[in-house]
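Box 3.1 A note on notation
Throughout this textbook, protein chains are presented in two layers. The first layer is the amino acid sequence; the second is a token string describing backbone geometry. Keep the layers aligned when reading.
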Amino acid sequence: QSHSMSAAAGGWPSWALCLLALLAGLQATRGMILPPGCQLAAGTPTELHCEDSGQTEIILDGLGSALPPLTVMDWSTNNITAIPPFPSGAFPSLQMLSLQYNLIRIVPAAALTTLGALQTLDLRNNLLTAIEPGGLNLPALLTLRLSNNRLTTLSSSLFMGLSNLQQLILSQNPIKALPAGLLGSLAALDTFALTAGNLTSVPAGIFSNLPALTQIFLGFNQITAIALGAFSNLPALITLSLESMGLLCFNPSGLFDGLPAEATIAYGTQTVVLECNPGSCPICTSTTVLSTTIPTTFETTTSLTTTKITATQQTSTVISTTRTTTTT
């Protein structure tokens, strides 16, 4: 009797509240058939989580009609080998798709193009060797993560149409070159990263017409030449990272002209060749080696010293100051 009075007064016991919550959850998900190992996020029925569930394929049948409009879909850390076509109109609200840590080799031409609201696409840590033309036709995309794959070449039109893209992460791919026009349509790009790849040069104009670009990360590549003008017209640049690339072949005089005064250029400890034997460096003009070991980080506002090393001697002597920079 006292229990009935308590319930009538609104004082439900905890077990009853749990039962009500379970029944409400069953009612909300009645008729929904989720893929094995998948679940909706607690309290957020618009997030489908299938990560680390032993999946070998992405199962989309019925998901668009049976579930609330999904905003997040996570299929990471599985054994998925292919991206199926996402049905037109099935996922109009999907903003984040995570496919990282799988075995995907190709992004098909039209598999993802129906995802008009997608803002984040995460394909890190797969086996990607190719992205078919049109495979990234995602106009709302803000973040694209492609690091730690097997991409070796990029077509100049690969990122065409991604006018809203802000972060492009290509690190840990054996990419050898950046084709002209690759970034030309990325007017909103804020961060570009291609570290630990096989780049051998930075061509002139590759970062042109990117007014929002604040960070460039190119360290741990095999770059031996940087073209004059490679980093020109970057009014918003804050960080330019060129660490651990060994022997560089360029004359820094004028290379960084036009960068904002607050920009930080990080080289790491390495040797930068100013002049050398023409046989070993295309831009070299004499057999004298003028090189400098540059501090880990320096700003474009203070003093940098240059060291002269002859072709036959390893001893060095400071001979001049070639650029005004500030060591930090």
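Confidence is low (pLDDT under 50) at residues 1-9, 19-31, 269-280, 283-328. The longest strand covers residues 297-309.
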